[in-house]
Amino acid sequence: MTPEDLKLLVRTIPDFPKPGILFRDVTTLMGHGEGFAAAVALMADKVAASGAEAVAGIEARGFIFGAAIAARLGLAFIPVRKPGKLPVPVLAIDYALEYGTDTLEVDPGAVGEGRRVVLIDDLLATGGTALAALELLRRAGGTVSHALFLVDLPDLGGAERLQGAGIAVEALLDYPGH
Fold first, then answer.
1. Is there a cis peptide before residue 87, judged by omega within 30 degrees of 0?
2. Structural domains of the chain ordered from first start
3. Measured by CB atoms within 10 angstroms of the end CB, which terminus of the chain is less buried, N or C?
4. Which residue numbers are catalytic?
5. For position 146, what pLDDT does the model report?
6. Which long-range contacts (C-beta less than 8 Å, at least 24 apart) are formed by 3-11?
């Protein structure tokens, strides 16, 4: 399947979570066996080309794609978690959301000093969560120079923000607008 085929499998829900937003729901792609496998294969090819030694996925849908890609390539998977989910001492970072703040955590022992890590998530919007994850992985010793997303919403500027932090950004699919 091509990226154009995959794009047809992503459901668009108007006015969610608020009026004027077109929500790109990737669960319909994940529920399509052939489409999900194709998305993972295409993303895995990009991760392999980056020279990564590990894949970090952002909770929750970044876990789904990241773990599948890591398993396909025989690489380590590093979960970037919401607070209070890891049973070991963690590194944590607070970051701003549109309405408030949130926190991400990682087990620094899972990252490893100098290990080449690719950051994975399902969707890139403003880039705030990805930037926080990037900083957290770097603080844990990882060398992160690539981020990969299933979907990019380019009008929201996330790719430019990540590129400004020295990250090469790729996405399989993009949707202009919000």
1. no
2. 51-174 (3.40.50.2020)
3. C
4. 61, 98
5. 98
6. 3/42, 3/172, 3/173, 5/35, 5/38, 6/35, 6/38, 6/39, 6/42, 6/172, 6/173, 7/173, 9/35, 10/151, 10/173
